[in-house]
Sequence to fold (273 residues):
Amino acid sequence: MHEDGSALKIARRVGFALIAGALAISGTTALGFWQLRRAAGKEVLQGEIERSARATPAVPDTAALSRPDTLLHQHLRLRGRWLLDHVVYLDNRPQAGRAGFYVLMALHIEEPTPIDVIVNRGWLPRDANDRTRIAPYRTPSDVVTISGVSLAEEPRLLELAAEPDRRLGGIWQNFDFDDYARVSGHQTLRLVVRQDATAASKPASMAATAVGDATEVADGLDRQWPDRGGVLQAQIDRHHGYAFQWFALAATLMALLIYSFIRLPKHARKHPS
Fold:
C-alpha cells in the first residue's frame, strides 16, 4: 500500500513536470518562430523599399493621394513650393558616426490636388557647443521638383517623457502627424518622403557637384542616406537574435526536463515519502 502511494506521488510529480515543461517549451518555441516571422516580414518590406529606390519615380494621381497607404514605399516625384516656416528638426539622428538632425519640411503641391507633403530634406550636423543651434542651409523659394521614397514615418526613438513644447522650427525627438497638424494648422499627407540625393531632384539654380561616389548638394543638406534598408536590417538582425535566444531557452528547458525524468525516479527510490 505504501509502495502504491509512493508510485502515485511519483506519477503526479512526473505528470506535473511533463505538463509544465511542455507548456514552457511550446511557449518559448512559439516566441522564437514569432520573431522569425517578424524578421521575414521586415525582409519583404526591406526588399520593397530597395526596389522602389531603384524604380523610376512616379507622379501620384488624385486617387492615390486620397489613399496614402497605396503610396507607401513608392518612389515618388513631387512638384511644389517649400513652406519655409513649416519645418521640424528631428534630434539624435547620427550620420557616419556624427550627431545631427533630420530636416523635415512641408512641400505644398498644387497638382493633381492641393496638399502638403512632409519631406525629409536631409541631415545637418549638430553644433558641438550648442545643441539647439541649427546649421545654416538653403531653401529655394521658387517651385521645385523633388523625388524620394515614401515611408510611413521616420524611425521612432525612445521617448522617456512627452516633449512639453512642440513648435514649428523646434527640435523634436520624433515626428507626429497629429502634433504637426496642431501646431501648424495644416493637415498633411500621412507619409514622409525621403528626398533623393540626385541632381534631378534639385532646382536648376542649385546644381550638385559629384565628389567620388557622393553628391555634395549646394543647399548644405546631406542626403547620403546610410542605407534605406539599414534601419530595417538592424531590426531584422535583432529579431533573429531574439529568436535564437528563445530557441536556446527551449532547448535548455528540454534538456532539464529530460534530466528530471531520468533523475526523479532514482531520487524517489532513495528517499521514499
Remarks:
- The CA atoms of residues 116 and 183 lie 15 Å apart.
- The beta strands are 75-90, 100-109, 115-125, 144-151, 171-172, 188-195, 208-211, 214-217.
